[in-house]
Amino acid sequence: MRRQFVLDERTDKLLADLAAGRAGNRSYVVREAIQLYAELQERLEDIENKPDFERMMKRSAEEIRTGRVVSHEEAKRRSRKRRS
Length: 84
Hints:
2 domains, mainly alpha, 84 residues
């Protein structure tokens, strides 16, 4: 089945680069990308449909609102400290 798409310059270059490793087969890369994207969406939906997910997100939002979080830099520093 043939389809036609309009790609921006960056995406076209990415497609060409990925296809180069697959004997130049751009169609294969597009099919593979769509399948991977669909699998990712399915996994995300599975995660979001778990009973604890909404509760965890609400708790996280509350912790952010109340300032019970640390910066990424602080988390890295603590992690390094524990390893040494």
